[in-house]
Design brief:
- The chain has 20 helices and 16 strands.
- Helix 17 links the parallel strand 11 and strand 12.
- The strands form 3 sheets. A 6-stranded parallel β-sheet has the order 7-6-5-8-9-10, sandwiched between helices. The chain has a 6-stranded mixed β-sheet with strand order 12-11-13-14-16-15, with helices on both faces.
- It folds into 3 domains: about 110 residues, no CATH class; about 170 residues, Rossmann fold (3-Layer(aba) Sandwich); about 180 residues, Vaccinia Virus protein VP39 (Rossmann fold), CATH 3.40.50.150.
- Helices cover about 40% and strands about 20% of the residues.
- Helix 6 packs across helix 10 and helix 16 crosses helix 17.
- It has about 525 residues and is an alpha/beta fold.
């Protein structure tokens, strides 16, 4: 890493207040860094965790990445006043940053529950150099290791030591077994270490060799935003015993590369004895385990971050936030469970919608398999942006942010879904941006349904709203009654064919010209 500038804080204000110290630090850094920013004019300012946030809090082009919420972590042991200002800084960063980046679903939930409910955390992949890791398992013994800081409040290494100490002697007599602890920190004298072969802090090649020799890695973490240790262990072909429901879930593959444990010595003991009783069933699958994490590359990590940088530098941060906020995730979860059922009885309306479509590239938002079949036609290339994709994965239908270049599809169709997006105005602007010619929308009206965010009480109210949208001209409209496949109730829907207005037409509308 090359450091272009090093800024030193010269304190002059006599105080013991951490808030005052932080304020002085921010003022000093801001004063010294301003000439640099004025010269460079950075497109994006990426701030890595809360320590560097405050001097840049009022810049619109910030990206804040949260790797570990220290105030939340200390809260596991009881929050005190010493950490309170750190909590304020972290909450401010989550709320104000142009884009907030986290690295697991677990951390996203932490942000919403503990830091800022209206934040919009973007879950991006981390990367590592998998080529540095390899498997070289000894054939004359079974090596079981713990890697990580000797921090009991977070890592659970004491439970690992207790579990090893309680293992059944009869099982240990069957094989030559080696137990290791690799990590930074002090090992208290009272901990049970009679069966531990090595306690050491390793770096570089010595660390990768320790991974390579280990058959099993035990990771009993109590709080882990991502867990790079687990990724490195899997890249070394180790069977990973780890806790679920944390950041490691991003790369864990059930039934393939790990066994679940609780951060409890009795549960760890039981799992280790299970593996050691049947080693042929669990060990010897190094290649399959290594393959399971081969996609966690720096190239993928950089590509996904560049996408976010581009959105922030082009002023599209609000679109990102609305599409990734808590409300959007709640609506998305409901659609994941009910989207297919809700559209199950729309057969006749799907045919009418298909008749509105022309030829060319057609982006279908919130598509079901039946819907795609109904829209297929000669000269029409369907691009599904689905509730359930063909490979079984779920794709968000949040239209406040669609990762499609401007004017890249001839027409877009979104049937029975626009009323569920969290920001209707931003959604229309995004649909205008990506669509070259025509937009077909199907919007229900009448009584509000569960999870619906926009409601149109009557046909007249819906029609009046559509005809006031400046970005599109309504070419045709028709209305239908249908049965909701979720609740079985009769409902009504308006189907609209809209033409995208040109920039010149929009200028004329704004200036009151015909």
């Amino acid at each position: 890493m090359v450091v272009d500038y090093f800024i030193e804080v010269e304190r002059s204000y006599p105080t013991e207040s951490r808030d005052s110290l932080k304020a002085e630090e921010c003022l000093e850094i801001g004063y010294k860094v301003w000439p640099i920013l004025s010269e460079w004019k950075p497109d994006v300012i990426h701030l890595n965790d809360r320590q560097v946030w405050m001097p840049f809090r009022n810049f619109p082009n910030t990206v804040f990445s949260l790797h570990l919420s220290m105030p939340d972590l200390t809260g596991l042991r009881g929050m005190d006043a010493y950490w309170f200002h750190e909590l304020k800084v972290e909450r401010d960063a989550c709320a104000r940053a142009g884009a907030l980046v986290v690295y697991s679903q677990f951390t996203r939930e932490i942000v919403w529950e503990k830091l800022c409910e209206f934040a919009a955390p973007l879950v991006l992949p981390l990367g590592f150099d998998g080529s540095k890791f390899h498997a070289a398992k000894p054939a004359d013994r079974i090596v079981i290791s713990y890697f990580g800081r000797l921090a009991q409040g977070q890592k659970g290494f004491v439970e690992y030591l207790q579990a090893v100490d309680m293992l059944d002697e009869e099982i240990l007599r069957r094989y030559e077994i080696e137990f290791n602890v690799y990590g930074k920190g002090q090992m208290p004298d009272w901990l049970p270490t009679r069966r531990i072969t090595t306690v050491a802090f390793l770096e570089g090649e010595a660390l990768t060799e320790a991974y390579a020799r280990s058959h099993i890695v035990v990771m009993p973490s109590k709080y882990e935003p991502f867990g790079l240790v687990g990724l490195e262990a899997l890249a070394s072909g180790c069977l990973l015993l780890c806790t679920e429901g944390q950041g490691m879930d991003e790369y864990l593959v059930p039934g393939k590369n790990y066994l679940p444990i609780r951060s409890d010595p009795f549960d760890i003991k039981a799992r280790l004895e299970e593996v050691l009783s049947q080693p042929g069933r669990y060990l010897g699958r190094e290649r399959a385990i290594m393959d399971s994490v081969k996609d966690w590359t720096w190239e993928r990590c950089v590509t996904e971050h560049l996408k976010v940088y581009h959105q922030v530098m082009t002023g599209r941060a609000p679109f990102l936030k609305w599409a990734n906020g808590k409300l959007a995730r709640q609506v998305e979860s409901w659609w994941k469970e009910n989207g297919e059922k809700r559209k199950a009885k729309l057969g006749p309306i799907l045919k009418e919608a298909a008749a509105c479509l022309g030829k060319g590239k057609t982006l279908v938002l919130g598509a079901t398999e039946a819907e795609l079949s109904a829209y297929a036609g000669e000269g029409r290339e369907l691009i599904p942006h689905s509730f359930h994709s063909r490979n079984g994965g779920f794709v968000s239908f949040a239209t406040e942010y669609i990762l499609v270049p401007p004017d890249s599809v001839d027409q877009t169709i979104f049937l029975l879904g626009p009323e569920y997006v969290t920001n209707f105005e931003l959604s229309l602007r995004e649909l205008y941006r990506i669509t070259r010619e025509q937009l077909v929308l199907g919007i229900s009206y009448g009584e509000r349904s569960f999870a619906q965010t926009s409601v149109f009480p009557s046909r007249d109210a819906l029609s009046a709203s559509v005809h006031t949208w400046p970005l599109f001209e309504c070419l045709s409209e028709s209305y239908y009654d249908f049965v909701d496949g979720v609740d079985g109730k009769g409902k009504s829907l308006g189907l609209f064919s809209l033409r995208k207005r040109s920039v010149e037409e929009l200028r004329a509308l704004q200036e009151g010209r015909p």
